Amino acid sequence: MLDTTLDSLDLRGDFYTRNFQPHPSENRLILNMGPQHPSTHGVLRVILEIDGEYIVRAEPVLGYIHRMHERMAEVKRYEQYLPNLGRIDYLHALAWNWAYVGAVERLMGLEVPKRAEYIRVITCELNRISSHLLWWGAYLLDLGAFTPIMYAFADREIIMDILQRITGSRLTYCYYRFGGVSQDIDDKFIEQTKELCKYLRPRLKMYKDFVTDNIIFRKRVEGIGIIETEILRKYGATGPVLRGSGIAYDVRKTKPYSVYSEIEFDVPSYELEDAFGRYLVRMQEMEESLKIIEQCLEQLPAGDFILPKAPKRPKPPAGEVYFTVEGARGEIGVHLLSDGSAYPYRLKLRSPSFSNLSLFPEVVKGTLLADAVSILGSLDLVIPEIDR
Amino acid sequence: MTKEGLGHVLEVKPGFCALLATGKVGYKKQLFILPDDLLNVVKHLDECGYALENITALEIEEGFLLVYHFNQWNNGEKLALKVLLTDGVKEIDSISDVYPGALWHERECFDFFGIVFKNHSNLIPLLLDPKENIHPLLKAKNKRQPLAAIMPESEKIEQYIKIEELGK
Known about the structure:
heterodimer; A: 388 residues; alpha+beta; Cytochrome-c3 Hydrogenase, chain B; 3-stranded antiparallel beta sheet; 8 strands; B: 168 residues; alpha/beta; Beta Polymerase, domain 2; 6-stranded mixed beta sheet; two-stranded parallel sheet
């Protein structure tokens, strides 16, 4: 018979299960959800203590896709670090691009040309729609509806084609430069984007009819995963998770950067506090993004797409800067300290998913296991962004 | 009254915060406090309705600098708390009793720098391999910069204020 006290066989679990002490009870079971669970979308692992079908305690285990981006920043020159940003949050890569170049621009006092700002807004919003579309398809896949992800990917494909012509990549964009963007947009891009806006509106309407108003879907999200304001505040949640609980905090509106102050759009928020509230916020945000894109295309000024005298290899003066933008998952922050050399002294990446996931153990207590899947999906997590 | 140079942050008295000029940094307010006052200040910010946004650390010549970012939802005005750990001290109070969201941020700082947070309920590695005892963001001695070099002249002490008067 096997000696169960043997450490070498790892029969008592790994480091994290050993550090996760179950409550003394006979009927409790420790269950590992992930790191290869289909509903965790990447390599997230959650240790659950369950009593029957009910969750007593949950603890996410991170680090499976940790790449130490913050250390990489210290050994790379400012411009060499640009490609890293697209790989932190692969779904809304342009928002991370923006947070980083924006921080460096503020440190150096670079004035971005108006046209470049508009191009940034258009591409960033296109990217936001593609991110929300993927979340929408994947969330419904978690809940057991297979077809929506096919529709979502069909729509995403068009956005990716449009962005590919301009940025040169389909997913891990590296398009923004210090003082502007790498390439100007052309008439074909404008044409394609206008077409897309016309095409997407009826599609979103169709998604509402098929999915949002679907009773089977509603039963899985309504009243599930209630997050109160106090918890959101103490854990620093942002983005649709925050707005799904009725707090209309959006960096684009509350503290406008770039040209967002010149554009009319609403910040959708719902006081439902449940998974359905967060779902509705994202669905409506896609329509708001379309509104923003159309306005930007209309107002697009002529001029430079990048500051002509912007340095390609910047050496910002010594100092500190903290710049935040609104990503698809919430507030993305870049805290940069420079000592005046060509390498950042310290770069901290504040990722919204990190804070949003940290409240999961609090929310999931006492819910059914199947609801945990629904709650996890409603947080819209991107694991590479959490692990960095 | 403006005090020149960051050497004065060491002169902060217990119970007081040094309010620094913010310049272009992107904060509404930034405060230097003593490590012993951290919990008091954080409790006060909690009462004022601030949300915890981020906790980060960096190694400098004087020791470690911890930066706590707070945010207000109604106006998006950010507040940064800065705490300097000098003389080889690598310990500070955990603020997770007030803001449980700090649990993970503090574990991350423990991972990257080896800073120990007192009264943290579960201070185990968050992102790094628990078997390896490495702190990747520690700097070589000749690479460390003094505080004044990375937060230069623009950031002067504007005034000293009592912790209780912070919210005003």
